Amino acid sequence: MWVVILIVVVPAQAGDGREAPRRVRFTADLRQQGASGFSAESPDRGGQILVEGTCFAVSGRGGDIEGATQGLFVRDARIISRWRLLLDGARVDPLGGYTAEPFAGVFVARTRLRDGHIEPTVLVERRRYVGSGMREDLSVHNYGSEAAGLTLTLEVAADFADLFAVKAGREEPNAPVTVTAADETWQASARHGRSDRGVRVLAPGATVAADSLTYNMVVPPQGEWHASVAVVAEVDGEELPVRFPLGVPIEHTIPVREIAQRHRESPTLRSQSLPLSLTVMRSQDDLAALRLADPGEPELDVVAAGAPWFMALFGRDSLITSSLTLAVDPDLALGTLRALARHQGTVVDPLSEEEPGRILHELRFGVDVSLALGGAERYYGSVDATPLFVVVLGQLARWGTDREVVDALLPAADAALSWIEDYGDKDGDGYVEYARPTDRGLRNQGWKDSADGVNYADGNVAQPPVALVEVQAYVYAAYRARAELAARRGDATTASHWADRASSLKRRFNKDFWLADRGWFAVGLDAEKRPIDALASNMGHALWAGVVDPDKAARVAERLLSPELFSGYGIRTLATTMGAYNPASYHNGSVWPHDTALCVGGLVRYGFVRHARQVAAGLIEAAAFFSGRLPELYCGFDKHEVPGPVPYPAAGSPQAWAAASPIGILTALLGLDPDVPNGTLSLSPALPPEWGSVELDDVRLGRERLGIHVRGDGSFSWTGVPGLTVKGRGDPQPIAASAP
């Protein structure tokens, strides 16, 4: 059966004859079997990525795995390095590749011309499902008038290479691989360092050799042939649970049931804007696929940073993703906080950069952890994850998480604050700086962590130690969050202490980082406490955190929307007038959706809704060019110069904080600011007019469910939340300063 992908928009009529908000429905055989959120996408440039949890597959557009950076990866190791399909000993001609879900792909190809035919009559379909291994359902269709005798071969190999070696394209010496082939089963194993890795390929009906699986068949005219193959991963002698078992209908498998369940439990969006609806739905699907089961608390999930190279828990990425998605899934923030708290630093280790109270940068489980940053499973070289931990805990409390749950994380928050003051501020000037202790770590440790990501206006690269503008903003927000948590518990002494620390930091920050003659905030302070004077997007994060004095906010907002920073599709990381500007760079002129989303939140916070609307509309327009899936980043070319956003060649996709960005900007433009512990909810919707009517239902606030209905004329109403006092405003208002 061929997959039919339809996007059906049902324009139900409102009672007054106007068109009601569109409810987007998706139909396909997978959807009819119980999944939801189906979307088609054009084949990726040069390949296709499927992902589910810690497992992902990178292949060519036709489904073959054979390139240097391609493979099937499980827990940071490549368990399949070759997976190539031949028919009668020849390559097939790819016709297209599509993703049905982030973990499910379909590849269609045709064979070479057969004798006696004008054009090829045999087509091959491969349906691939990725999850702690892989299942591939093969179908051969004969559209000819006579039976076709065929031999289908799957060439297979495993090298168990470490993810970091594959990513870097390094020819690392791999451990010897032992291969056995018997009884319709192909098996390989290797010991690499301290880890044993293995893979078993189950191929019912196949003849198995050391390097291939072979099927001989006769397909009748207008007939079909089918087979299924399973790839099962093994780690240290134990096989991982099979997510897509052979013989089990796809609709009954765990990943399909899980994603369907999440859709049933998630808030429902209805909008007259098809691009907005598709983008938010795609984001929810991608975030579901990027979830990782937390071994410490299996009932809670965390989110991986993104595919293909960041399928692991990252402190900064996971926390920002959690913050942006509180409106649709506060449990993700809770799982992330708990996991990060368990791995919080306890000792001083210069190699891994662990320090007491510090929140990790990333957690890896590859076969050779010596290749990872710091040469260990846990690397702590992030200057911003630690204050963000406290910020997100404060936000989680405001969204109504039970007090005892929040209280259990307070010791970790206090340890994080101690790190800020005892280790983060190494020179005692009141600002948090970074400087790696060895050459094994990252040179730059903010979110712009490429080697040239922090520079002056003339293009020269700043040398650490550096105090970044956004990091001081996060620290301010962390102080405010901790003060608020203490005040709710009647701890006036602690509340006063952290409120005073926040006020002092804000006062000094607005003096030391503000460039009055330029009209913007410095990217940071260098080792000599000189301003790093480039015009960059970082200061938008300071708006988001609320550390900017009101008398400076208007100039910041105008700079963010200036032609130098705003491309039309998002806010550039670096202005076009700066010496290091390059629209096709990683951090010096590209557009990162999460960066833009935080800027939108900051603009709304200070009441610059016209600016926020314009940026948000540009980001959703950009998403449409990527089939609703915003990538990690894209190039910063101006909208008036190019017909669409130009892809960045090595951008990860799906990427967690990119997927979270549409949800974050929608939350911000709804003016959705809950304070459940104090029994209040602020709403001040100010959506772009081109989005028309928008309805968001079943938003979880503590034990209540909120519905927001915004009409095309800007008026709005809400339902639910009987236990909260709703402060609805017709005019845009700043978000409360204590809740970034």
Short description:
This protein is α+β, with helices and mostly antiparallel strands and 740 residues long. It has 15 helices and 37 strands.
Spell out the key features of this protein:
single chain, 740 residues, Glycosyltransferase, 2 domains, nine-stranded antiparallel sheet, five-stranded antiparallel sheet, 15 helices, 37 strands, 27% helix, disordered N terminus
SS-based class: alpha+beta
Give the uncertain stretches in residue-range form.
1-45, 730-740
CATH fold node name of the largest domain:
Glycosyltransferase
CATH architecture classification name of the largest domain = Alpha/alpha barrel
Question: Quick one: how many beta strands?
Answer: 37
Main sheet makeup: 9 strands, antiparallel
Provide a count of the helices.
15
Distance between the termini: 50 Å
How much of the sequence lies in strands comes to 25-35%
Instruction: Write down the overall geometry.
Output: globular
- Total individual domains: 2
Helix content: 25-40%
Briefly, what CATH class of the largest domain?
Mainly Alpha
Our Rg estimate from Cα atoms comes to 26 Å
- Mean pLDDT across the residues is 88
